Structures are given as structure tokens and as C-alpha cells.
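Journal club side-thread
Mid-discussion, someone asked how the predicted structure for our own chain would compare to the paper's figures. Pasting it here so we can look after the session.
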Amino acid sequence: MKPLITAAEVKKAFQNQDKAIFIEEGGIITPAARDAAREHGIKIVANGKEPLTKEGEQQMQAALSQVLITSIVSEVISSLNQGGQSHPVYKEVHPCGLKLVRGNSVILEDFNIDYRNGKVQLKEIFNIKESPGMVAGFMTIDKTTFSCRPRYDEINYILEGTLECIAEDKKIISKAGDVLFIPANTQITLSAVDKVKVFFVTHPGNW
């Protein structure tokens, strides 16, 4: 995350009798910090060269707003699910549209599908609202078998284990590092003797 300058840092600089606060390129200063800097006569300097321009200030405030929105949304979702069943995925959303999912926030959940013994878990990381053309996520198939007929094209990248796929009496074995494409409306049976983990992408996303 970009360096963040708050009013507390400005007040500390004033107490230390500093005349300027230096921030790295792309750093963010809060509106309250900027007001405090004006009040105490402290300059805000970027890269040790020039004071921030009005345009730079507006860009920083826009970036700050995006960071705050992402943080607030994540915290709200987390609080709503404290006693619930869904675990939020932490995403960093940037003004240009880029999104970054932190892998350590991805917790798979039981998938509501008819399977034999074992366990199937799944977690979407990008849903239809974020990416109408496709959905992406992770799935684990642990010592079980299930059948389905997807209404969408699906690409599965095998991360761990060995996955058996049967379609029209044709058996395909895929292992870690392999990529399996499943055409829409194909009746398939997926099996895993041990635990298999895949990263999937579906198209279209309204699955």
C-alpha cells in the first residue's frame, strides 16, 4: 500500500519543529493532514523536490478515497459475516479498474452440489457483477465424485492433485500444471481419489 500521511504525522512534525514533510512518489496525504500542514506552516514535498501541485493533491485524494472505500467495504463485509457462513475475499480496487485479490484471504466454502462422500468446496473471487463476461475462483474436490452439465464454457487450471474427467465415455486424467477445457452443455463426471485444487474461469459469467 502507498505511504499514507495523516494529521498525526503533521502534528508530530510541528512539535519537532520540522519545516517540511517528505513523501514518496504516489504517496497519499489525507485532507485533514493537508489542513494541519497549512495551519502549522509545514510544506508537503514529494520526492524531496517540489511541493505537490493542486492536480497532484486531487489525484492523491482520489487514490485515498479508493483505498478507504476498499478498506471500509472489506471491514463491513467482515463484520456482517462474523457469525455467518461466508468469508469475504480482500480485494484492492484501483481507479483504473485493476483489482488485486490477496490469496491469503481466500477461504473455500462447502459447495451445494450432489456428490458422493468426501467434500467439494468452492470460492468465487470475481463474480458476475464485477466481470459480467466471466467468473473466476478456486475449487477443491476431496476424495469424491460428482456429475454435472455446465451451461457455460469452463477452463480449469489444476493446481494440486490429479483430476479424472469423464465425458461421453472418454476419460481424461489431468494433473498439477495441466489445463482442462470443458465446453458448455457437456455432461461430465469429475473424480478425485485424493484432494484436487483447481483455479477455474467460466464464460459467460451467469452460471
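Post-session note: Residues 22 and 49 are 9 Å apart (CA to CA).
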